[in-house]
Amino acid sequence: MLVTDTGQLHLWRALLAGEQQIPAAPVVLRRHDRHSLRGWAQRLGEVFNTEERLERLYAVTSGWPWLVDRAHRLHAELGDADRVLSKLAGMLTDLSEARAFVEATGVQSDAALAAGYRALDKQFQGSTADTEDIVTAIAYETSGDEEEARWVFACLDAMQVFDREEDGRLRLEPLLRKCLSTGG
């Protein structure tokens, strides 16, 4: 098993775009959904042990592992789940904290990815779109190269920047979008 980050985007291209025949398949680590977040909380014991706290945890983290880990570290420091949730909610209104979160997502680690994300934010402004519309928007707003746009889309998708709706359409995840729009 090989774990990569955005520092190895050349490997991502090979795996996600299928440019080369590689005897490997990418496994993308995902943001927590409500179900996996519940499992995470149960492994911790009594920290976020009520449905209301789990919903608040999901609301302030959107399941982003970096933020969920931050909640865990804050709990070790503060010892009170309600204080942790309040503090975490306030943290992302702080520009430096928002920047740290955005950096942790990797969405701005590469010029093409950052440009693709900005193109989607500009074109869809938080509304839903299907994959082909997303690829077209990336191509239109950036290089004009559909193949490159498909790779950018595949990377952004692997980076978990989309929420998937029940109808299969995608939307930029709101918490990341908010942090990026406030200068993060």
How would you describe what is shown here?
With 184 residues, the protein is mostly helical. The chain has two domains: 34-91, no CATH class; 111-181, Arc Repressor Mutant, subunit A, CATH 1.10.10. Helix content is 61%, strand content 3%. The chain has ten helices and two strands, in the order αααααααααββα. The chain has helices spanning 9-16, 34-44, 51-61, 65-78, 81-91, 95-105, 111-124, 131-141, 146-158, 174-181; strands at residues 162-164, 170-172. A two-stranded antiparallel ribbon has the order 1-2. α4 crosses α5 (81-91), α7 packs across α8 (131-141) and α8 packs across α9 (146-158). The model has no long low-confidence stretch (mean pLDDT 85).
Poorly predicted tracts of residues:
none
The overall strand count is 2
What CATH architecture of the largest domain would you give? Orthogonal Bundle
Percent helix, as a range, is: 55-70%
Strand line-up of the largest beta sheet: 1-2
Number of domains: 2
What is the helix/strand order? HHHHHHHHHEEH
Terminal-residue CA separation: 32 Å
How confident is the prediction overall: mean pLDDT? 85
> How many helices in DSSP terms?
10
Can you tell me the CATH topology of the largest domain? Arc Repressor Mutant, subunit A
Assess the beta-strand content as a share of residues.
under 5%
> Which geometry do the CA atoms define?
elongated
CATH class group of the largest domain: Mainly Alpha
